[in-house]
Design a protein that fits this description.
α1 runs antiparallel to α3, α1 runs antiparallel to α7 and α3 packs across α5. The chain is mainly α and 137 residues long. It has one domain: Four Helix Bundle (Hemerythrin (Met), subunit A), CATH 1.20.120. It is globular and about 45 Å long.
Length: 137
Amino acid sequence: MDREIIDQKLESLRRCVQRIASKSPKDAATLIADFDLQDIVSLNLSRAVQISVDIGAHLISKMNLPPPDSMGQTFDLLAQAGILNTDLATRLKKAVGFRNIAIHSYERINWEMVFTIISLHLIDFSEFAKEISLHLQ
């Protein structure tokens, strides 16, 4: 496994999470009213999901595991391998659903739900990074 690749991706993930945290509005109404803020949040949230999937896929490719059939299954396989806890894997699978809507059906984004995600679940990406780092030690 190329630790340098994983470390670079973890740093990119950290930057995405930090960018979202630094721009998180105080309420959903602010997010709904501010198109620039929507772009910043949705882009960085989508990137965070994609980077997490990429890290997972990289780890899976170096283990004796079958490749995932979907982005969400990446997190299931990491949980089955004991790299992620099951609850975190489930939450990250749900984040893939947001990413898919953001990429493929941007006009359908529910900004109140996005506000809930960044308010309550942004920490999931930090937990993911911690669990990956622990696995690599």
